Each structure stands twice: as C-alpha cells, then as structure tokens.
Amino acid sequence: MRILLLEDEVDYKETIHEFLDSLGYKVDSFENGDDALDAIHFQSYQLLLLDIRVPGTNGYDIVKMIRESGDEIPVIFMTSLTDIDNLSIGYELGCNDYIRKPFASKELQYRIEQVLKLFYFHSNKEIIDLHDDYYYDASSGELMHKEKAISLTVKEQKVWDYLISNIGQFVPTKQLWEDVWEGKLVTEADIRMCIKKIRDKTSSNLISSQKGLGYKVDKKR
C-alpha cells in the first residue's frame, strides 16, 4: 500500500516516513505541494497524508483539485491549526480525517488504519463479499470460499493483499512490480503467471484485467 506524505519540516517528514516504512507502507514524501501534486497525477496512492501550510500548492488546494477531478482517494490532514473554521474547511473540501501536531506515532497509525478500513471496505464489517461465493476476512487477512481458507504461496498472498488493499481500482503491472516484487528482475509474463495461479486456485472472475490498466478485485454488488 502506497502513501503520499507532504510535510515541509524536514526532520518531521523523515521521522514520519521512517515510521510508516517500519509499518510496511510504501511512502513517497515531499516538502513542496507542487511536487506532491505532480506525483499524484502520475502515481497511484491509497492515502494522502498532507500538511496544510507548505511551499507551492497548499494542502487545501491539493484536495480541492483532486476532488474536482473525481478522485476520492482518502486524505488525512496533519496540522497545528486547531480552530473550528480551519477544521470546517478541510472537511468541506473532502478530507477524511485530521490529526493535530504534535502527535504520537501510534495515534497516526490508528488513524491511518481506521481511514483505510472505512474507505476501502466501506463499513466496520470484517467480511468483504467477492464474486463466485468468495469472501475476504479482513480480521484474519484470509481469502475464503465456503468457510475454507484458500492456500496461497507467499508471493501469491502478497499480490492478493496488494489487490485487495486497492479493491475497486485497477493496479498497473508496473505498480505490482515496484511494490510487490520491489523492482526485482521479473518480466510481465512472471506477473501474469502469478495472477493465473491465483485464478487457478479460485475463480477466473475474482481478478479482472484490462490491457493498459492492470488488474482489479471488485466487491460483489
């Protein structure tokens, strides 16, 4: 799961980056809002963690622009601004949560986990229904079919976890290569084969694909 971090205080940014990295998130961090906005246009993120008052495009304007473009990616504002007017602006623009500086690392972790859970699974349910009577148990992290857990290899599980964390969104092959294979020497055929093995163990309808867009897992409608 990839997070964009925008924070212009260098030491603070590095501390947050290192903490998120220790939790297993992929993090791209920026000090300038213009650079962060460029990255959002070219990279798929699952969460934006934004300071408000930064050089270049400020946090408010970033959220305003992405919401106007139809992008619903979850956003958490990090800010020392505490008055109700500033909080109202953020929520009216479409942020999902605020965290006030200074904050403990654990508080940040809990807020991120809660926002991601509510956004990607849309409820507090631990069970996410998928196609062909499959379902994902978010509490155990297991893919299930009629009460039976599906046995996946370590790499297959990593691919599945990445796709389910991006549920409803296409994940480009390049992004899988960067985040799951961590840039190691593999070909597109290797990635396709991994997807095929998951489909062979489950259902051909569970992971959809589209040329030029990548792979996607959808909730059952």
Any descriptors?
single chain, 221 residues, alpha/beta, Rossmann fold, Arc Repressor Mutant, subunit A, 2 domains, five-stranded parallel sheet, four-stranded antiparallel sheet, 42% helix
Describe this structure in words.
The chain contains 8 helices and 11 strands. With 221 residues, the protein is an alpha/beta fold. 42% of the residues lie in helices and 20% in strands. The chain folds into 2 domains: 2-121, 3-Layer(aba) Sandwich (Rossmann fold), CATH 3.40.50.2300; 127-217, Winged helix-like DNA-binding domain superfamily/Winged helix DNA-binding domain (Arc Repressor Mutant, subunit A).
What topology does this entry show?
Blueprint (H helix, E strand, L loop, with lengths): L1 E5 L3 H13 L3 E5 L2 H10 L4 E5 L7 H10 L6 E5 L4 H10 L3 E4 L4 H17 L5 E3 L4 E4 L4 E4 L2 E2 L4 H12 L7 H7 L8 H14 L5 E4 L3 E4 L4
Parallel strand pairs: 1-2, 1-3, 3-4, 4-5
Antiparallel strand pairs: 6-7, 7-8, 8-9, 10-11
Helix pairs in contact: 6-8
Q: How are the strands of the largest sheet arranged?
A: 2-1-3-4-5
Topology-level CATH name of the largest domain: Rossmann fold
What's the number of structural domains? Answer: 2
Q: Helices and strands: which structural class?
A: alpha/beta
Order of helices and strands: EHEHEHEHEHEEEEHHHEE
Stretches with pLDDT under 50, minimum 5 residues? none
The helix tally amounts to 8
Please write the CATH class name of the largest domain.
Alpha Beta
